[in-house]
């Protein structure tokens, strides 16, 4: 059911790779809620072509941008304001990739060039996006910017390796740019810390199925799905959350506040 929460708003949504992507669901819901959007992803990711289906459904244009390239991001923001016919009200950063995870490197054996790539793609890109938006004065007053994070920023999940540091940097950028953008334009900046979710990026992490199941059993409400996450993003883009900023918002079915659950006890208790 749609509530017209984003009626008249203009947004940029990054990171929709396929139907499983969290950004894909956010784009569908933003469209349903009345927003005009532009989609973006890395030029390489677009070769798969799936994003065209989404663009058609959402009546959106696609602007390729490698999120590590300031030049690409400048083009993204200037074209978006042109296409959408005005300043931007919301931005979703839904971008993450670690070459070390892809290549199965363990934490004691990281390739440092790849580590820097992980940080650049998954965290610094968020700073670059906001710096470009600021310099072009592309954000509307009371706009909202959201990036997606994971609890490995605060706690150890061994297989998440260098992405843990990337998420810690991402959350810190949200706080620091959140302060700056609030003072400049009343724009809010937050991260949503999402449950493990079955997507291309998610399932690339070693032992993901066990990871997913464990989190599900440790969360009194169960894992939050990609669709649940999209609903939360829409609320954050809406006018109902104007004074929420510089936060890392846990969206995890209660996982982060839970010590143990009956489900876990049952799982590891010896059978009688
Ligand atoms: P996904 O694989 O569908 O999305 C990741 C996106 O990042 C892809 O669309 C990919 O093309 C894009 N990307 C990679 N390098 C890029 C670059 N250089 N420039 C522009 N885009 C680039 O997976 P998912 O899960 O939807 O990921 C979205 C966000 O959610 C990521 O930040 C991820 O870390 C975060 N997240 C995911 C969780 C999960 O378990 N799936 C849990 C918590 C957070």
From TrEMBL:
EC number per UniProt: 1.3.1.9
Gene3D superfamilies documented for this protein: NAD(P)-binding Rossmann-like Domain (3.40.50.720)
Signal peptide: none
Catalytic activity: a 2,3-saturated acyl-[ACP] + NAD(+) = a (2E)-enoyl-[ACP] + NADH + H(+)
Class of the enzyme per the UniProt entry, highest EC level: oxidoreductase
Keywords: Fatty acid biosynthesis, Fatty acid metabolism, Lipid biosynthesis, Lipid metabolism, NAD, Oxidoreductase
Sequence intervals crossing the membrane: none
InterPro entries recorded: Enoyl-ACP_Rdtase_NADH (IPR014358), NAD(P)-bd_dom_sf (IPR036291), SDR_fam (IPR002347)
Associated pathway: Lipid metabolism; fatty acid biosynthesis
Record family assignment: Belongs to the short-chain dehydrogenases/reductases (SDR) family. FabI subfamily.
The protein, known as: Enoyl-[acyl-carrier-protein] reductase [NADH]
Source organism of this protein record: Adhaeribacter terreus
Lineage: Bacteria, Pseudomonadati, Bacteroidota, Cytophagia, Cytophagales
């Amino acid at each position: 059911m749609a509530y017209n929460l984003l009626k008249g708003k203009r947004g940029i949504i990054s990171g929709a790779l396929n139907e499983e992507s969290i950004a894909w669901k956010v784009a569908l819901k933003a469209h349903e809620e009345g927003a005009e959007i532009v989609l973006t992803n890395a030029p390489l990711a677009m070769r798969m072509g799936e994003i065209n289906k989404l663009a058609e459904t959402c009546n959106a244009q696609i602007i390729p941008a490698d999120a590590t390239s300031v030049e690409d991001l400048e083009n993204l923001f200037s074209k978006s304001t042109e296409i959408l016919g005005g300043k931007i009200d919301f931005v979703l950063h839904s971008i993450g990739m670690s070459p070390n995870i892809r290549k199965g490197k363990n934490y004691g054996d990281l390739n440092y060039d790849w580590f820097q790539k992980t940080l650049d793609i998954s965290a610094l890109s968020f700073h670059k996006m906001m710096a470009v938006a600021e310099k072009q004065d592309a954000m509307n007053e009371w706009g909202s910017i959201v990036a997606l994070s994971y609890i490995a920023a605060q706690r150890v999940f061994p297989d998440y390796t260098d992405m843990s540091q990337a998420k810690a940097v991402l959350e810190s950028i949200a706080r620091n740019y959140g302060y700056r953008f609030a003072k400049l334009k009343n724009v809010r900046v937050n991260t949503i810390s999402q449950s493990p979710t079955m997507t291309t990026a998610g399932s690339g992490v070693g032992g993901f199925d066990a990871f997913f199941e464990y989190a599900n059993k440790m969360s009194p409400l169960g894992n939050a799905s990609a669709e649940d996450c999209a609903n939360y993003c829409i609320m954050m883009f809406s006018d109902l959350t104007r004074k929420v900023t510089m936060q890392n918002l846990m969206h995890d079915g209660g996982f982060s506040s839970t010590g143990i659950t009956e489900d876990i006890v049952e799982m590891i208790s010896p059978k009688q």
